[in-house]
């Protein structure tokens, strides 16, 4: 890099010293920590995003959010030019860069990395980073740090998009790089238009079926509530009552993570809501779960990401069958591959159900970056985490074939059953956010499919019955001491703990258990399934004790 670039970087980096004794890493979904510790990290991630933009000659995104974490936390992650997560091979650089305190060391790291990755910093570089943040109070000052980092790379612009949901920012990055219109209004237009299109092709017999047109949505007191208020005004066939729009404390007793893990009624909901379809978003609106409220109890009936996935898979498979015949052959030369991606947290009953449908089900480690990558290997890849993160990906070649097929069918006759199926699939490909999981497009697709099937939420929930499960968190001395394999289902370090877990699990008929270090919190997560809730709870408690014995604060290692 030239002298001018060096001196800009040296100067700006000296304004962002690292907090002493803090070492962060690019975890499941970027860096997360207490917001007071993050300014220097966000500045450095700004530099990284700018470098990625220069290298790829494309627009890149930088999102400031800590999603479902408490309001005092914050975080930062990068959206790649495709709109997906940062390419994983850049993560080690993100780690070293963020932990480089001395400006000269940082300069050297950038120099070395730029050479290795062939990032043209010598000539006139060009780039653009779209900057978004959720509603956390710390977002504004962290966005300033990001801007300083981005603009420390000469020729790169930071475009501040203000307060956004995470999926909106990813969608914008993807759309910009495809040369499409990419404003916030374009986003709402695309979602509402494709939703309307899906509603238009609801089978005639189901049009007037008595499915309640109202859904009540918990916005987690985050960015989702205020943005959903804008979207809902463009929807005519659906009434959305948005609660927890930002007046209360973010994620406190509200939101998708709380609802999925605690399985109790979120703040702002009560007995008057019994009988309605309810849904919860998380703090940055990339997760979605449904629930209904039980009479005379503080419990909910949870309809989680696995069931959303099952509903989507069923619908897509049905449309493909109409279009192509039962064997999935779309014509002599085209065979559409439909695949489903889950993690070890998927309820065993959902996996069983999906396999019974004849679908190919594969597993990856936790984190959208893994699921998304796997799903993109199919013509139609559907992925979901149990907690409600997920989407549907369509391959370019399949969409191209679908467009062609639709044109052929248009020229032959009036709208046939087959053409309706093609039009539905095309509408789904536009409604669903193919950059990343999006609670808004997920919500609209669930609503459209329920209407299409003429199903109540109760009917949907009856697709299969969840096995009782339990999740616990255990605080340990050093969570990085746990190393897993086989999509996180087996612990290979510390030695001996997996055998102990196996012995415990064997005591429970149909028991299943795994542990893994969280990538967003400083804990080990324990997950269990068994034939009764008591058994799942008891197995989880025993394994938590094992974790404590092997790795806990009372252990001398
Ligand atoms: C069990 C669980 O819900 N894990 C979540 C959580 O990751 P952890 O690495 O488990 O902390 O946050 C991730 C980002 O939001 C999400 O992708 C993931 O599913
Ligand atoms: Mg989130």
Helix content: 40-55%
**Chemical compounds bound to the protein:** 2-acetamido-2-deoxy-1-O-phosphono-alpha-D-glucopyranose, magnesium ion
Major beta-sheet overview: 5 strands, mixed
Structural class designation = alpha/beta
Q: What is the number of beta strands? A: 21
Give the distance, in angstroms, between the N- and C-terminal Cα atoms.
Answer: 46 Å
Average pLDDT, all residues: 94
Instruction: Give the overall shape, derived from the CA principal axes.
Output: globular
Provide the number of structural domains. Answer: 4
Rg measurement, Å? 24 Å
* Low-pLDDT segments, ≥5 res: none
Structure summarized in a few sentences:
The chain has 4 domains: 3-163, Alpha-D-Glucose-1,6-Bisphosphate, subunit A, domain 3 (Alpha-D-Glucose-1,6-Bisphosphate, Chain A, domain 3, 3-Layer(aba) Sandwich), CATH 3.40.120.10; 190-195 and 306-461, no CATH class; 202-302, Alpha-D-Glucose-1,6-Bisphosphate, Chain A, domain 3 (3-Layer(aba) Sandwich); 469-551, TATA-Binding Protein (2-Layer Sandwich). Helices cover 42% and strands 19% of the residues.
Describe the protein's architecture and organization:
The relative contact order is 0.10. The strands form six sheets. A five-stranded mixed sheet has the order 1-3-2-4-5, sandwiched between helices. Strands 7-6-8-9-10 form a five-stranded mixed sheet. 42% of the residues lie in helices and 19% in strands. The longest helix is centred in the middle third of the chain and has 20 residues, at 305-324. It has helices at 3-14, 39-56, 91-98, 103-116, 139-151, 166-177, 184-200, 204-207, 223-232, 255-262, 305-324, 348-356, 368-375, 396-412, 417-431, 439-453, 457-461, 497-505, 533-551; strands at 31-34, 59-64, 73-79, 127-133, 156-163, 214-218, 239-243, 277-281, 288-293, 300-303, 329-331, 334-335, 338-342, 360-363, 380-384, 390-394, 469-474, 483-485, 490-493, 512-517, 524-529. It is of the alpha/beta class. The chain contains 19 helices and 21 strands. Belongs to the phosphohexose mutase family. Its EC number is 5.4.2.3. InterPro entries: A-D-PHexomutase_a/b/a-I, A-D-PHexomutase_a/b/a-I/II/III, A-D-PHexomutase_C, A-D-PHexomutase_C_sf, AMG1_II, AMG1_III, PAGM. One of its GO terms (biological process) is carbohydrate metabolic process.
């Amino acid at each position: 890099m030239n002298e001018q670039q060096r001196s800009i970087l040296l100067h700006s980096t000296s304004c962002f010293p690292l907090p002493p004794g803090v070492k962060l890493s690019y975890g499941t979904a970027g860096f997360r920590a207490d917001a007071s510790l993050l300014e220097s990290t966000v500045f450095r991630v700004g530099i990284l995003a700018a470098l990625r933009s220069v290298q790829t000659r494309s627009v890149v995104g930088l999102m400031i959010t800590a999603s479902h974490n408490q309001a005092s936390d914050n975080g930062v992650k990068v959206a790649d030019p495709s709109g997906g997560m940062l390419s994983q091979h850049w993560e080690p650089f993100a780690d070293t860069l963020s932990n480089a305190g001395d400006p000269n060391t940082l300069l050297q790291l950038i120099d070395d990395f730029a050479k290795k990755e062939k990032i043209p910093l010598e000539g006139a570089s060009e780039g653009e980073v779209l900057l978004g943040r959720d509603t956390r109070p710390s977002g504004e000052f962290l966005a300033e740090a990001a801007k300083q980092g981005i603009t420390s790379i000469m020729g790169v612009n930071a475009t501040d998009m203000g307060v956004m949901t995470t999926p909106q920012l990813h969608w914008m990055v993807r759309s910009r790089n495809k040369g499409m219109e990419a404003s916030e209004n374009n986003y709402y237009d695309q979602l509402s238009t494709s939703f309307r299109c899906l509603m238009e092709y609801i089978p005639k017999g189901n049009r007037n079926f008595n499915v309640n047109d109202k859904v009540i949505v918990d916005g987690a007191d985050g960015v989702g509530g205020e943005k959903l208020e804008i979207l809902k005004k463009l929807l005519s066939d659906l009434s959305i009552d948005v609660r927890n729009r930002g007046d209360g404390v973010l994620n406190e007793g509200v939101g998708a993570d709380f609802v999925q893990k605690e399985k109790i009624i979120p703040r702002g909901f009560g007995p008057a809501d019994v009988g309605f379809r309810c849904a919860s978003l998380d703090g940055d609106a990339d997760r979605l779960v449904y629930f209904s409220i039980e009479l005379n109890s503080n419990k909910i009936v949870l309809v989680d990401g696995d069931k959303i996935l099952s509903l989507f898979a069923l619908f897509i498979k049905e449309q493909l069958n109409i279009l192509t015949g039962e064997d999935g052959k779309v014509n002599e030369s085209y065979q559409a591959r439909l695949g489903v991606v889950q993690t070890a947290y998927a309820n065993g009953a959902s996996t069983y159900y999906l396999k019974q449908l004849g679908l190919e089900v594969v597993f990856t480690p936790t984190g959208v970056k893994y699921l998304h990558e796997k799903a993109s290997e199919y013509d139609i890849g559907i992925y979901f985490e149990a907690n409600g993160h997920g989407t549907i990906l369509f391959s370019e070649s399949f969409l191209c074939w679908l467009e062609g097929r639709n044109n052929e069918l248009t020229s032959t006759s009036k709208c046939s059953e087959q053409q309706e199926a093609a039009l539905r699939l095309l509408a789904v490909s536009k409604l669903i956010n193919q950059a990343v999981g999006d609670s808004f497009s997920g919500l609209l697709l669930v609503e459209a499919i329920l209407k299409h099937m003429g199903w109540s939420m109760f009917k949907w929930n009856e697709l299969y019955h969840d096995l009782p499960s339990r999740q616990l968190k255990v605080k340990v001395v050093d969570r990085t001491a746990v190393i897993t394999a086989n999509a996180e289902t087996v612990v290979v370090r510390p030695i001996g703990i997996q055998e102990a877990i196996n012995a415990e699990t064997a005591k429970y008929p149909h028991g299943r258990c795994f542990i893994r270090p969280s990538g967003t919190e400083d804990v080990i997560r324990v997950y269990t399934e068994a034939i009764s809730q008591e058994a799942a709870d008891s197995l989880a408690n025993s394994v938590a004790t094992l974790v404590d014995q092997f790795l806990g604060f009372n252990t001398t290692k």
